[in-house]
Amino acid sequence: MNKIIEALNENLKVIYRKAVDADAALNSLQHAGKGKFESIFAAESGFETRSKRFVPYVEELAGEIAKVASAEQDIESAEQDIINEALPNIVKKIELMLNTLKQFKKTLN
C-alpha cells in the first residue's frame, strides 16, 4: 500500500506544478477579458470543490490522499474499507486533472 500512496503523491506533485502554471495562464486570460466560466470541473466530476482555478482542486485531492495515507497507518478492517472506496475516486480525479490540464495546455499553444 505504501507504493500506491507514494505513486499518488508523485502524481499529485506533477499535477500541482501543472496547476500552478495553468492558473497563471487563466489569470492572464481573465485579465484579457477571456475565460468567463463558473467552475473548471462540472458537478458530476466527483470534486466537491467549485473553483475557476486548478489549485483548489489539487488541495482537495491532496486532502483525500492524506486521509488514505493516515487510514493506512492504523489499518483495521473498517479503515481498509475506507481505503478501498477512496482509491478509485482518487485515481479518477487524478486522471481527470491530468487530462484537463493537458487539454488546457494544448488550447494555449
Describe the structure.
The chain is mainly α. The protein has one domain. 74% of the residues lie in helices and 0% in strands. The chain is built from three helices and no strands. α1 (2-31) runs antiparallel to α2 (55-73), α1 packs parallel to α3 and α2 (55-73) runs antiparallel to α3 (77-108). It is elongated and about 50 Å long. The N and C termini lie far apart (39 Å). The model has no long low-confidence stretch (mean pLDDT 89).
Mean pLDDT: 89
Query: Counting H and I runs of at least 4 residues, what is the number of helices?
Result: 3
**Structural class by secondary-structure content:** mainly alpha
Number of E-type strands: 0
Q: Which features would summarize this protein structure in a list?
A:
109 residues, 3 helices, mainly alpha
Topology summary:
Elements: H1 2-31, H2 55-73, H3 77-108
Please outline what is shown here.
The protein is mainly alpha-helical and 109 residues long.
